[in-house]
Design goal:
The chain is α/β, with parallel strands linked by helices. It is built from 16 helices and eleven strands. It has helices at residues 3-10, 13-18, 28-39, 43-53, 68-80, 91-101, 122-133, 140-149, 151-160, 175-186, 220-234, 257-270, 284-288, 290-296, 314-327, 353-363; strands at residues 59-62, 84-88, 112-114, 166-169, 195-202, 205-210, 242-246, 277-282, 308-311, 331-338, 344-346.
């Protein structure tokens, strides 16, 4: 599919050069973006993210560097972005798969590699890991073993040592398992996992859902933090946030657990001035349908449908995300790991090569570019 916008982009050049073309293309960049949009559903909403990523040359390390999707994403990064991919994997495996897939990238020329079985930085890595976690039960022997076998931990140590600017992991295994190693190494100096924000692109526009992976039963304080983080990240995509705090309770009509936590989160948010719209607590249909909302709460804080849904537990957020993907034809971008200074992102096992490229663009954007 990646060639579909490339080939048509080249077709107008010969007739334009010879004067045969009766309707010359005056803006080739705009023409290429339009072709991309016909192939990739995510193109238009990701455009501001790719433009922001183009302002810097960041090093992105992939924990599962031997995976075919990673190799294809790395190829696309090299061709479409200014960032440098770093792969963690065995060189003979990476090179043989590149050759089998016919990819035009070469180790040492287009990307860097860390070999977990034999790397000259191995001692530096395990001593760094041990120094960070020696008072959390990690012995020197365990640190050595982890730096040989755990590619997520290796990637996190590389980011900590400033050998990479951001990391991407979890093409297999559980999200929270990977998050544990990411947080142990990188959740420092004010950084901490706030929540996971999933963007689902639907036929009628984007919808953001949180927290889809991090907090099973978030406290009111954690919910408020998720709202603040979501507002910040939604603006990265060129949209103004309209955030709905969703619950089985609706504007105080039930004293259930989720309703009470959402109401307390609203009180926390109301304690300071905010520069974005939010409202709650409410049902999901009330959040998405202004007609229902006006009937129930005529003085709601924003008009139109919400574009961000915040749920009171991970089960609800994850279920909505998966239903939108599987039954409504939604395309997911992310999830975005909020609160970690763009130093790490944990994708899901179902991610495609294009999804990895989109996440690479998110990881490749300097934090200063989005607030």
């Amino acid at each position: 599919p990646r060639l579909m916008p490339v080939v048509p982009s080249a077709i107008p050049h010969p007739p334009m050069a010879t004067g045969v073309a009766t309707r010359p293309v005056t803006d080739m960049d705009a023409y290429h973006h339009k072709l991309n949009a016909t192939v990739y559903k995510s193109t238009m909403i990701m455009r501001p993210v790719f433009e922001a990523a183009a302002t810097a040359n960041r090093r992105i390390v992939f924990a599962e560097g031997e995976n075919e999707r990673v190799l294809r994403a790395a190829t696309a990064m090299i061709e479409e972005m200014s960032d440098t991919p770093i792969l963690i994997g065995r060189p003979e495996v990476v090179e043989s798969r590149i050759e089998r897939l016919g990819l035009p990238i070469r180790l040492g020329e287009n990307f860097d590699l860390v070999n977990p079985e034999s790397d000259p930085r191995y001692r530096d890595y395990w001593t760094t890991y041990h120094a960070l976690l020696e008072r959390r039960g990690v012995t020197p022997e365990l640190a050595r073993a982890i730096m040989r076998t755990n590619t997520t931990a290796i990637g996190a140590v590389m980011v900590h040592r400033q050998e990479a600017d951001s990391m991407i992991c979890v093409l297999f295994g559980l999200y929270l398992w990977h998050l544990r190693y990411v947080a142990e190494v990188l959740a420092r100096d004010g950084l901490r996992p706030v929540g996971a924000l999933s963007l689902v692109i639907l036929e009628d526009g984007p919808l953001f859902v949180a927290d889809t992976h991090v907090h099973p039963e978030p406290t009111p304080e954690q919910i408020a933090d998720v709202v603040l983080g979501a507002a910040r990240h939604v603006r990265r995509f060129g949209h103004e946030p309209k955030i709905a705090l969703c619950s089985h309770s609706q504007f105080g009509n039930l004293d259930c657990d989720t309703g009470e936590r959402m109401r307390e989160a609203m009180r926390i948010l109301d304690a300071e001035p905010r520069d974005f719209d939010y409202e709650g607590e409410m049902h999901t249909d009330t959040a998405l349908d202004m007609t229902i909302r006006e009937r129930i709460m005529p003085h709601a804080r924003f008009d139109g449908p919400a574009n961000v849904l915040i749920f009171a537990n991970l089960d609800a957020a994850s279920a909505v995300r998966n239903i939108l993907k599987m039954k409504a034809g939604g395309l997911e971008v992310g999830p975005i790991l909020m609160g970690m200074g763009n130093r790490a992102h944990i994708v899901t096992p179902a991610v495609t090569a294009r999804g990895l490229l989109n996440t690479s663009a998110l990881a490749g954007t300097p934090v200063a570019q989005y607030g």
